């Protein structure tokens, strides 16, 4: 299922702050960007005001490929948000990106046959607009 159903309510929207706003804006504009420290050059996700590695405040957002591998996942059967009711069951995964060992992004992962993904599966990013203000990262198993 490639987009949210028109009959489903929109998912709750995150409260973007000055730290996370560039992440959400880039998704709306069609790219995935993650914070990178100007001091130690490590990427980090989720956005934070401080580098989790060297404690620097000098962080910038940089584009990443959106290609990756499923590191771990969970398949949701009992849906608690009406926005996802007609998608169940669906899988949410931590996808490790090749830009840096241990760099992971969270998103729904879809397979061609609606099966659960497998750990280690190659995936590619697909950005899904769910409202005028919100685009979410999802991943599709690469064929």
UniProtKB/TrEMBL annotation:
Residues 24-59 form the ChsH2 rubredoxin-like zinc ribbon domain. Residues 63-127 form the ChsH2 C-terminal OB-fold domain. It comes from the Bacteria. SUPFAM superfamilies: Nucleic acid-binding proteins. InterPro entries: ChsH2_C, ChsH2_Znr, NA-bd_OB-fold, Thioester_dehydratase-like. Coiled coil: none annotated. Gene3D superfamilies: 6.10.30.10. This is OB-fold domain-containing protein. It comes from Nocardioides humi. The lineage of its organism: Bacteria, Bacillati, Actinomycetota, Actinomycetes, Propionibacteriales.
């Amino acid at each position: 299922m490639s987009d949210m159903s028109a009959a489903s309510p929109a998912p709750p929207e995150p409260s973007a702050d000055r730290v996370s706003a560039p992440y959400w804006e880039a998704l709306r504009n069609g790219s995935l960007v993650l914070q990178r420290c100007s001091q130690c050059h490590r990427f980090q996700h989720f956005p934070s005001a401080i580098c989790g590695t060297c404690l620097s405040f000098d962080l910038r957002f940089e584009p990443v490929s959106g290609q990756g591998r499923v590191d771990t996942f969970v398949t949701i059967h009992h849906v608690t948000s009406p926005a996802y009711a007609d998608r169940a069951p669906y899988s949410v995964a931590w996808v490790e990106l090749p830009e840096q060992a241990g760099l992971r992004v969270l998103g729904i992962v879809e397979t061609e046959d609606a099966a659960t993904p497998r750990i280690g599966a190659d995936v590619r990013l697909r950005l899904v607009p769910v409202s005028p203000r919100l685009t979410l990262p999802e991943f599709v198993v690469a064929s």
